[in-house]
Amino acid sequence: ANAEGDPAIINKQEWNQYLGEGVDARPYGMPSQFESHVRRQDVPWLTADPVSSVNFTPLHELDGIITPNGLCFERHHAGIAEVDPAEHRLMINGLVDRPLVFTMEDLMRFPRENHVYFLECAANTGMEWAGAQLNGCQFTHGMIHNVMYTGVPLRLLLQEAGVKTTGKWIMPEGADASGMTRSIPIEKALDDCLVAFKMNGEALRPEQGYPVRLVVPGWEGNMWIKWLRRIEVGDQPWHHREETSKYTDLLADGQARRFTWEMDAKSVITSPSPQAPITQGPGPLVITGVAWSGRGTIPRVDVTIDGGITWQQARMSGPSLNKSMHRFYLDVEWDGKPMLLQSRAHDSTGYVQPTKEQLRHVRGENSIYHNNSIQTWAVNEKGEAENVEIS
Amino acid sequence: AAAAQAAIADTQAAATDLINTLAAQPLSTGAPVAETAGFGLGRDALPVEIAAWDIDVRPDGAGLPAGSGDVWTGEEVFVEKCAMCHGDFGEAVGRWPVLAGGHNTLSDEDPVKTIGSYWPYLSTVYDYINRAMPFGMAQSLTNDEVYAITAYLLYVNDLVDDDFELSNENFLEVRLPNEPNFFMDDRATAEYPIFSVEPCMENCKDSVEITMHASVLDVTPEDENAAQEDATVVAAAAEPEVDLAAEGEALFRQCKSCHQVGDGAGNGVGPHLNGVVDRPIGSVDGFRYSNTLLDVGGEWSADVLGAFLADPRGAMPGTKMAFRGLRSQEEIDAIIAYLATFE
């Protein structure tokens, strides 16, 4: 500060003198006007049309583990269905003793549970298979959100209808104009799936399936059917569009894996990153990021700042919940020299996040989906970061 | 004042009654719910309700309705209802999905995944068209039309001859060539052993170098805020009418998937709408209109346009515009005001 002192201290600010808005001004509160840059963004060239498309969570602006509702990435196949809850019904039919119809009021009378789960699109990081492409973790890793859901265990609804012993699969179906359907094995349906109507305490947002969506913990986001209106029980999978022509993993030899439901362990450094450069120069630096696994928790994340010659264990902070996002930090003294930043997640089953090279070796470059490889950011001496690949 | 006092007295009397009633009755015990006994919630689904929603089809043919359609009928329907996005022969327009071709490309550097080259089951084609197509007008096709379109898609993929007719009777005889090339998730054996080894922490390699930069491709979207601020400045400088037009711009989002406006606007699923207000109906070069719009004559005056936007299929029976119509006159006025800003 110069001799006259910091104007931010010396001068009176308007908020020091004048009254702000009253309690009646913002009945549904929004973020500060100075945070208007924190928003979902799409990549127009990715899809033919914004109605059947995707946008991305601004991971580089977030901390902790919970994604605010208004920032949860969106992916829909026929736009946002605006469903009137009074006109919404959930039907269970097929191989059940008693086909049933529930209203929203009926669902509210079942015992409910609260769980924090990540939802990751199978296509997250899909644009990076063939090489470093998009400059920002919002775009490379932003098809994910992590939310506390309130909902009824699917098991209770299925028990109410009485699944016949021949019932081995379920097919949830959405009420939107894409009529989204997926096949899910009965074991998963009876294990930890939820029929959820709240996210982070309030009603689901329309773009997340209001009034009710399926929660399929740890499994690819496309299975979490939004605007859930029907669940059919059957004795075999349906092989519908989203589990055959899409969301299957085409390997280098032309063969394709199907039913790759569980999301492998993955992590990314959210700051510094291309959209979150270092702006204060050398000195103490907080390196932070998120990690998750569809198979359990993340007890450990390793971070390297020299491109993988030396690794250090990061500090995990915040709740460590099953199939939820985890937050990690590495606090370093930055000397102003270039860095090659990477993070590597270990999950509770002993799985270690692979390098891009390792993953390509097994799967080739045509998979599109399920890319969970290690991400590299190159940080230059000015603190700017770029998406790169390294030897 | 006397009336107010009487009202208060009434309220007090009612409250006293309620307290007396409660005191006279035992309170709820709130017995725990036994999960195993069921909750008795929901009601029986009626057969007619199940039939209305249960339209799914499986590879074994379960769910297929009675019906049939041939390649030539399929071509007619496809050209009218599908080709605006998928191209006349399934080759696709813009970034919409390619439906035909791509045979023997799955192990190439750039595989072309189509119904013929990649999809394992024909039932998926029937099910998807029937539940979700045409885009923006889902579940509007008859069973015979879905069979016919499916037959046409087999034909453009060189899987049947031009005299082929598909029906629920012969459906299972058609197999798609890529069916054998799918296998169940084997990551537990193919990947987990490789990816669960304790990794190196120190002196893991001698040197490291950058092999690829994302900035070389330069495909990351620009910062949206900068662009939006520019737009706000432009809007603020315009006429007071901007409010209605601005409302129209927001409403126009629902039209954007088919119609373009502004600089460089071209024909998409629908014709471009530059200068549409007072333009002769059915007059954009290069757009393939329905016969209705070619024959009706006249201009898109605000009144004609308004009636069309309120109920497209009612106002112009036979139009290809797959839009349900706008709910209110305010919305119609706003969209027309917005469209009028484009010359």
Question: Care to give the gist of this entry?
Answer:
Chain A is mainly beta and 391 residues long. Chain A has helices spanning 7-10, 14-17, 104-107, 137-141, 154-161, 186-191, 356-363, and strands at 41-42, 53-56, 75-76, 90-94, 100-102, 113-120, 144-153, 169-174, 184-185, 194-199, 202-203, 213-215, 228-234, 249-250, 256-258, 266-271, 283-292, 300-304, 312-313, 315-317, 326-334, 339-346, 376-379, 385-390.
In round numbers, the mean pLDDT of chain A is 97
Whole-number count of domains of chain A: 2
From the N-terminal CA to the C-terminal CA of chain A, the straight-line distance is 44 Å
CATH topology of the largest domain in chain A: Sulfite Oxidase, Chain A, domain 2
Q: Could you give me the name of the CATH homologous superfamily of the largest domain in chain A?
A: Oxidoreductase, molybdopterin-binding domain
Low-confidence regions of chain B = 226-241
Which features would summarize this protein structure in a list?
heterodimer, A: 391 residues, mainly beta, Sulfite Oxidase, Chain A, domain 2, Immunoglobulin-like, 7 helices, globular, B: 343 residues, mainly alpha, Cytochrome Bc1 Complex, Chain D, domain 2, two-stranded antiparallel ribbon, extended
Give an account of the 3D structure.
The complex is a heterodimer of chains A (391) and B (343). Chain A is mostly beta strands and 391 residues long. Chain A is built from seven helices and 24 strands. Chain A has two domains: 75-257, Alpha-Beta Complex (Sulfite Oxidase, Chain A, domain 2), CATH 3.90.420.10; 266-388, Immunoglobulin-like (Sandwich). Chain B is 37% helix and 4% strand. The longest helix of chain B has 23 residues, at 2-24. Among the domains of chain B are: 55-181, Cytochrome c-like domain (Cytochrome Bc1 Complex, Chain D, domain 2, Orthogonal Bundle); 241-339, Orthogonal Bundle (Cytochrome Bc1 Complex, Chain D, domain 2), CATH 1.10.760. Chain B has helices spanning 2-24, 47-53, 71-81, 83-86, 122-132, 143-156, 187-190, 224-237, 242-251, 291-295, 302-310, 312-315, 329-339; strands at 43-44, 68-70, 165-167, 182-184, 210-213. In chain B, 27% of the residues are buried. Chain B has a two-stranded antiparallel ribbon with strand order 2-3. Chain B is mainly alpha-helical and 343 residues long. β24 (385-390) of chain A pairs antiparallel with β5 of chain B.
